[in-house]
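As noted in the main text, all predictions were made from sequence alone. Below is one such record, for Spermidine synthase/aldose 1-epimerase.
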Amino acid sequence: MTDLPTSAEATSVVLSAQGTEVSVEPGRGCRLASLRVGGTELLRQGPRYGSFVMAPWCGRTAQGRFRNGGEMFQLPLNGGSSRPEAGAGPHALHGTVRDAVWRQTPGGTDTKASFTYDLTDPWPWEGRVTQVVELAEDGGSLTLKLAVETFDVSFPAQAGWHPWFLRNLGQGGEDVRLDFSPEWQEERGEDHIPTGKRIAPQPGPWDDCFGMPGGVDATLTWPSELSLRITSRAEYVVVYDEPAEAVCVEPQSGPPNGLNSHPRQVTPLDPLELTTTWSWQRL
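Prediction:
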C-alpha cells in the first residue's frame, strides 16, 4: 500500500515561463495538477484528474493477469468497465505509479524538473520510473519524458500519460474539437479489452485505442480560444471522450492489455523510453 504523502511530499512543483504555468504534484503520482496558459486552465481539476502517468502498464490488463516467460503473474484488480452495463472486469487499471509518492531529483530549474519512483510491490520486479517535465522558455510548449528501467531482471512494461483536458474552458466559448487521423482502431470486446482485431476508425463517443504507426499526432481546438497539438513517437493513443467535463487523449507505448498482447521487454541495457510534446497557440 502506498504511504500517504507528508505535507512536504504533497507540495506542488511549479514551472513557469512567459505567462504559462505548470504545477506538478510528486506526492500524488507525479501528476500535472494544472496547466495554465495566460491564466486559462486547460486540465480538469481534482485529485483524480490533471494528467497522470501510466506505468508499468497502460489502461486495462485483463483480469490482472500476464505472463513473463513461462510464469503467470497476478496484479491487484482495481478497475472494470466504465460502463456497468457492459458486464466487464474487474481488471488491473493504469499501472501502480499514479497515486504513489515520487521524489524530485536535484538540479531543477524554473522550467524543468525531474522525478523518480522506485517500483515495488505489487509489481513483481525492482525498477524505476522517471518523468522529466520541461516547459519551453517561450511558454509555448511542454515536453514530458518517461523512462522505465529495471535494476536487474528483465520484465515487460508499458508507459504513457492520461491527461484530462477540459471540454470547455469556461469563458463562454464552444466545446473542444478533436482532430486526428488514426490508421486503425483496436476492436474492443464487451470486457473492454481489445480483441486483437484492427478495424476502421468508428465515430465516437470513444473509450478506445487507436493505432498511429507514424506517431501520435492529435489537435484539440477550443474555437476562437486556443489550439493544443499533442505529438509523440508512440504509436498508440487512447481517446476517452465520454465524460461531460473532459476529453482524454492518451499517448502510450502499447494498447490496453499490452503486457499480454504486445509485451515490450525492459532489460538492464534497454529501458523503455517515451516522449510527448504539447504545443499550443491562441486563436
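The domain at 13-282 is CATH 2.70.98.10 (Beta-galactosidase; Chain A, domain 5). The mean pLDDT is 93. These features were considered when defining construct boundaries for the mutagenesis experiments described in Section 2.9.
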